[in-house]
Amino acid sequence: MAALIDTVAWVHLEDGKILGARSRGKDVFYIPGGKRAPGESDLETLTREVREELTVAIDPASAVHVGTYTAQAHGHPEGTLVRMACYTADYLGDLVASNEIEEIAWLTLADRERTAPVDHAVFDDLAASGRLR
């Protein structure tokens, strides 16, 4: 049985670009978010992880599920899968990379290969719907 990493991510789009974050020591960008703690709901995970990574407060009442994606987990042994529940949501505050994040960037479809495998399907879906250029 394959190992599964259960995550939640914040799909934040502006002007046809998606916000990406690169953790310290990592070679790819990720859609901001992270692993669910035991007993946490999607929205609890989303608000905690985004606050930890980007220092902003997600408005849970504005959250909309974009989709849930599963793929090989980047940097993990073959067969380790990551499942990522993706949401859009409004936020309060200024986007600032926290200590665990080395870099944040606005990514386009052309940056798809600079992201983790699970993000590729998100990029493809957003591009197909005209939301990512």
From TrEMBL:
InterPro entries: NUDIX_hydrolase-like_dom_sf, NUDIX_hydrolase_CS, NUDIX_hydrolase_dom
GO molecular function: hydrolase activity
Domain Nudix hydrolase: 1-128
A Pfam family hit: NUDIX
Keyword presence, Hydrolase: yes
UniProt keyword annotations, A-Z: Hydrolase
PROSITE patterns, alphabetized: NUDIX (PS51462), NUDIX_BOX (PS00893)
Keyword Hydrolase: yes
Gene3D superfamilies, alphabetized: Nucleoside Triphosphate Pyrophosphohydrolase
Protein name in UniProt: NUDIX domain-containing protein
